[in-house]
Design a protein that fits this description.
The protein is an alpha/beta fold and about 260 residues long. It contains eight helices and eight strands; from the N terminus they run αβββαβαβαβααβαβα.
């Protein structure tokens, strides 16, 4: 009995320690900031935010219609410049790293990232006839929340999920994550408010976002539903390597020059 009680106390202490680690380091498990590029990669643009001046990159800034891109949690968005150069030559394309990424000031958080995204959209909307939004993985939640609050022209979601909270709860059911997690990225909540035409790109072999999570988001997007393109052989991190990825985005967003 005494041994059992001692083991129980040890297990309780380990559990409490793990809870503490979750509370203290949870954002390090969500965000993986990328370093600043060593050399100039494209024309820069700046968005002034409460965290400081955020730097991004732009292609074809003189085009009347724009597209604003948000990447994944460990994605160096500048690596997509060549892809968008080829896929969207008729649009201005803005690639926006998160605060704390690519040398930008501040530390990433859901609230801060969304504030920056709204500021970027408002700046581009004043400059262009319309703004489409593209979000990949973590960026899909940013894009959904943005599209629920602003009149985006069109919305493209790549490997999207319904909720980081739900994903985390499936992986760590022993922790009360609904109480502990600060950045929940619950895309399903604002999704029903989206009115913009929407394209969803799904990786058939996604090892990061389970199919059930993407399906929950699709259901939340409303009865009309988005246009869905599944790339059966694609994985979460290589979906952009398949030609149908670029062709689907190009066809959905159109020439953009009119």
């Amino acid at each position: 009995m005494k041994l059992a009680w001692s083991m129980l106390k040890i297990l309780a202490a380990v559990y409490l320690l793990m809870l503490l680690l979750v509370v203290l380091f949870q954002r390090r498990l969500i965000y993986f900031p990328t370093p600043a590029p060593l050399e100039p990669v494209a024309e820069e643009f700046r968005v002034e935010t409460r965290a400081g001046s955020q730097r991004g990159w732009v292609l074809h800034p003189d085009r009347p219609r724009a597209a604003l891109y948000f990447g994944g949690n460990a994605e160096a968005v500048e690596h997509n410049l060549e892809l968008f150069q080829a896929a969207l030559p008729g649009r201005a394309v803005y690639l926006m790293p998160y605060r704390g990424y690519a040398g930008n000031p501040g530390r990433p958080s859901e609230r801060g990232i969304l504030e920056d995204a709204l500021a970027a959209y408002d700046q581009l909307a004043a400059r262009h006839r319309s703004v489409a939004v593209i979000g990949r993985s973590l960026g899909s939640s940013v894009a959904v929340q943005l599209a629920a609050q602003r009149p985006v022209e069109r919305l493209v979601l790549v490997t999207p999920f319904d909720s980081i909270l739900r994903l985390a709860q499936r992986q760590f059911p022993v922790f009360p994550l609904s109480l502990l997690l600060r950045d929940k990225f619950e895309s399903w909540r604002p999704a029903p408010r989206i009115t913009a035409p929407t394209l969803v790109l799904i990786a058939g072999r996604d090892g990061v976002v389970p199919a059930w999570s993407s399906q929950r988001l699709l259901q939340a997007l409303g009865p009309a539903g988005p246009e869905v393109v599944e790339i059966p052989d694609a994985g979460h991190n290589d979906i952009q390597a398949y030609p149908v990825f670029s062709s689907a985005i190009a066809a959905f967003l159109g020439p953009g020059q009119e």
